[in-house]
Request: fold
Amino acid sequence: MASKDIREILVATDFSDISDAAVRVAHAYARAFGARLHVFHVTWPDELGLTALFAALVAELGTLVPLVVASQRGDAADEIVRYAKGHGIHLIVLGTHGRTGVSRVLMGSVAERVIRTAPCPVLTVPPVGGGEDARVLPPAVRHCVSCNTTSHDFLCESCRARLRAQAVYVEGGSEHTTRPKPTS
Reply:
């Protein structure tokens, strides 16, 4: 696929620092290719402040690139792929946490699932190194989607640790949240 064929770019965001880097990369690609940028977010139940987060992001990106803002509730990987198929997306850009090994198995990988099922190429943007230069967009006031405490990420560190502990407890590394019934 030549760059002239990329007219629609989708970037998925959870408004974390990692996805902020992906948004910045996707915006640069859209500007270079003269493409429209679709900023997409998969919502969680009871998520608060989404309109304000989108407004701040759109204001930060400016008017150099045509933007489409959309959100959908559901499984992140499934909804990203569904949106891409439904809107003729030519390139998907995703941030990745860069997890490997047991951590990736326990937490899953949205990026990996999107790569396997996407109808177009997927560009993954790894986390940026530490320090002040790592911030791509200005920090926004965010709240943990689980406990609603102030957090710099989608989940606060305590909820992330609790989720990891629950995942470790689940038998056989399965993603099921209930234990299978024993057969007699």
Notes: The longest strand covers residues 36-43.
